[in-house]
Design a protein that fits this description.
CATH class: Mainly Alpha
CATH architecture: Orthogonal Bundle
Pfam families: p450
Number of helices: 14
Radius of gyration: 21 Å
Number of domains: 1
GO molecular function, one term: oxidoreductase activity, acting on paired donors, with incorporation or reduction of molecular oxygen
Largest sheet: 3 strands, antiparallel
Order of helices and strands: EEHHEHHHHHHHHHEEEEHHHEE
Helix content: 40-55%
Number of strands: 9
Binding site for heme: 329
Cofactor: heme
InterPro entries: Cyt_P450, Cyt_P450_E_grp-IV, Cyt_P450_sf
């Protein structure tokens, strides 16, 4: 079963004989899953977004505000499970009700040692950041998720075994890692940030609404349709710039090399530990004008498209392409286009929405 190992604050997720998530056969398997999921990805996302907003509206009708965190996480879990694994959570009442929470607990156990906590130091470093957490804390829930995938995801499991020479155990563990850590975990951090940005800016909503309705008309939303929405894409990119879902990356140098910045050069020796902090890099004033501010149209026009070469949120530039030879997020383009679909779907459904970091306080249905 998967375990979580730490060297200082460095997390290494180790499972079975796969030492790195980017191991070629595993990366190829993940990219194959994404490719095959493309036939249902958009329809599942839009269907589950409708369910999410119906739930939020029902709660709002009772007065006050409605938290969107749990409805959003259920939406993410359901559409990803059906898209990536071909398994319907509704086939298991327990998974349908609590599958998202099971993943939350599993993720929390792995991420806690890397989460910055600014009080009670040095106790935080001693008791939260310095030792391996026992898998027994989440083994029961993980086993239920494992058995669900084993039962309901037979087609994808068989493909992992026959086309990528993975054992059944390896296939299921990697499916759960892709589902839980890569996809569900990333979206659960990123999408609330995007919703909060939209819900707190009425003027931005108006501009986006005009673009969405002009570009999409009455047609069904798709990846192709949101590719024509320049401002929508720019808002998604700007949210990723300021709040990347995975702000820290660690690695050890494989050889001696020289690392250059704008005005300095650093000698790196083989074996040295490197840490990249994306939130700092994405606020470089020599690259981004007014880097601390949210600028909705930053990535529009020719100059904006050039800036995409400096947008790092996925272990590589936005203009890069994932492959078996690099560690760039295999679903990089799916993430940005799915976020664009969320924005477009929202602004076709509502004329306006008010929300903060966790709750919706008002919506006005589209006329």
């Amino acid at each position: 079963m998967p375990s979580v190992k730490f060297t200082g604050d460095v997390r290494v997720c180790a499972y079975l004989d796969t030492a790195e998530v980017a191991h070629s056969k595993v990366k190829n398997f993940a990219m194959d899953i994404l490719k095959r999921s493309s036939t249902v990805w958009v329809t599942e996302l839009l269907s589950n977004l409708d369910t999410m907003w119906d739930t939020i509206e029902a709660e709002l009708s009772k007065g006050g505000s409605a938290s969107y965190i749990i409805p959003l996480q259920k939406c993410i879990f359901n559409f990803l499970t059906k898209s990536l694994i071909g398994a319907d959570p509704a086939k298991s009442p327990e998974i349908a009700k609590s599958g998202y929470a099971m993943l939350d607990k599993w993720l929390a156990l792995q991420l806690l040692p890397t989460v910055q906590i600014s009080f009670l130091q040095p106790l935080v470093e001693i008791f939260l950041h310095s030792f391996t957490y026992p898998f027994a804390l989440v083994s029961g829930d993980y086993k239920k998720l494992y058995e669900f995938v084993e039962k309901e995801g037979k087609e994808v499991i068989e493909r992992g075994k026959t086309e990528f020479q993975l054992s059944q155990e390896e296939t299921i563990h990697n499916l759960l890692f892709v589902l839980g850590f890569n996809a569900f975990g990333g979206f659960s951090v990123f999408l609330p940030s995007l919703l909060s940005t939209l819900g707190s800016n009425a003027q931005l909503q108006e501009k986006l609404r005009l673009e969405v309705r002009e570009k999409s008309g009455e047609s069904t939303l798709s990846f192709n349709s949101v590719k024509d929405m320049e401002l929508v894409q720019s808002v998604v990119y700007e949210t990723l710039r300021l709040n990347p879902p995975v702000p820290l990356q660690y690695a050890r140098a494989r050889k001696d090399f020289r690392l250059s910045s704008h005005d300095s050069v650093y000698e790196i020796k083989k074996g040295e530990l490197l840490c990249g902090y994306q939130k700092l890099v994405m606020r470089d004033p020599k690259v981004f004008d007014d880097p601390e501010s949210f600028v909705a149209d930053r990535f529009t026009g020719e100059k904006g498209r050039e800036l995409l070469s400096y947008l790092y949120w996925s272990n590589g530039p936005q203009t890069g392409s994932p492959s078996e030879s690099n560690k760039q997020c295999a679903a990089k383009d799916y993430v940005t286009l799915s976020a664009c679909l969320l924005v477009a779907h929202l602004l076709r459904r509502y004329d306006s929405i008010a929300c903060g970091s966790t709750s919706v306080t008002a919506v006005e249905k589209a006329q």
